UniProtKB/TrEMBL annotation:
Role this protein plays: Catalyzes the attachment of tryptophan to tRNA(Trp).
Keyword Protein biosynthesis attributed: yes
Substrates-to-products reaction catalysed: tRNA(Trp) + L-tryptophan + ATP = L-tryptophyl-tRNA(Trp) + AMP + diphosphate + H(+)
Family of this protein: Belongs to the class-I aminoacyl-tRNA synthetase family.
Gene source species: Phormidesmis priestleyi Ana
Pfam family, one: tRNA-synt_1b
GO molecular function: ATP binding; tryptophan-tRNA ligase activity
GO terms, biological process: tryptophanyl-tRNA aminoacylation
Amino-acid positions noted as binding L-tryptophan in the UniProt annotation, renumbered to this chain: 135
The protein, known as: Tryptophan--tRNA ligase
Uppermost EC category: ligase
EC number: 6.1.1.2
InterPro entries in the cross-refs: aa-tRNA-synth_Ic, Rossmann-like_a/b/a_fold, Trp-tRNA-ligase, Trp-tRNA-ligase_bac-type, Trp-tRNA_synthetase
CDD domains from the UniProt entry: TrpRS_core (cd00806)
Amino acid sequence: MAQPRILSGIQTTGNMHLGNYLGAIRNWVELQESHDCFLFMADLHAITVPHDPKLLAENTLKIAATYIACGIDPDNSTIFVQSQLPEHSELAWIFNCITPLGWLERMIQFKEKAVKQGENVSMGLMDYPVLQAADILLYEPDLVPVGEDQKQHLELTRDIAARLNFQFGSEENPVLKIPEALIREAGARVMSLTDGTKKMSKSDPSDQSRIDLIDPPEVITKKIKRAKTDPERGLEFDNPQRPECNNLLGLYQLLSNQSKTAVAAECQDMGWGQFKPLLAETTVAALAPIQAKYNELMSDRTYLQQVLANGKEKAQAVATPTLQKVKAAMGFVQ
Ligand code: TRP
């Protein structure tokens, strides 16, 4: 029997950090054992805010290398570049014409990002979730693993599919398959090192707030040493008064591959002076093999390019027929 299909992607802006790894890529690595995975680099989404053309291609390759370095197997999963498949933009246009403007005006992420852009809000920024719907629906996935912050975009995706089915399909013969979101549990959410109540994010202006996957050991150690803590002794999970403590313990748990109970027991009598060097050492050791593989991949671009060319072909074999099906249902000339 065919394995259930999964689709997900990451926008190609900025360096990948621990939050991307522990919150997203590491789950995909596990899922690829039992699922047919389509994983892509969302470079068309990267240009919804002002971008540097000198960095766009490099950022895309860096993310591809990160996927593979973290354990995504290109022989097993399909890794591809969004902009290399015109199907994404074309389906997004079609969706644009059936999506009520009001649905997009309600998107929380748009409102937040628009505030940051000031005068410079592009049509593309508003259209971001429609392109995301096209990314997803082209592959007819069963599941879309995403973080909590993408929940609203997934609901919009399902609404767009249902609307298209209602307008141009029939109940017995839906045009598009409606996917389920696989929202990762809150525990796997990695928070900022400078504020345990905020998500670790590429767009945080402070470098100290996150650990990039390619940070050298000294930098990792220094960032952990400087991470915000509290004056209490004894470390514990899930104390709402101590968000930083919960986050750093959670990082240690994930990076050392231990159970929460084991970590809670190990650290209950520790002070920060004892815990921080332990966390730093654990982080450096966990990232060492990823960094080695990443550097190897980035120094051999021909292999990466080959992976992306294969990925494009495998992705297109699924995306092209879906787009054709939509165009036929809508009455375009065949
Ligand atoms: N919006 C997602 C993010 O910022 C990236 C993304 C684009 C995506 N298209 C997607 C994720 C399709 C899942 C499925 O993380």
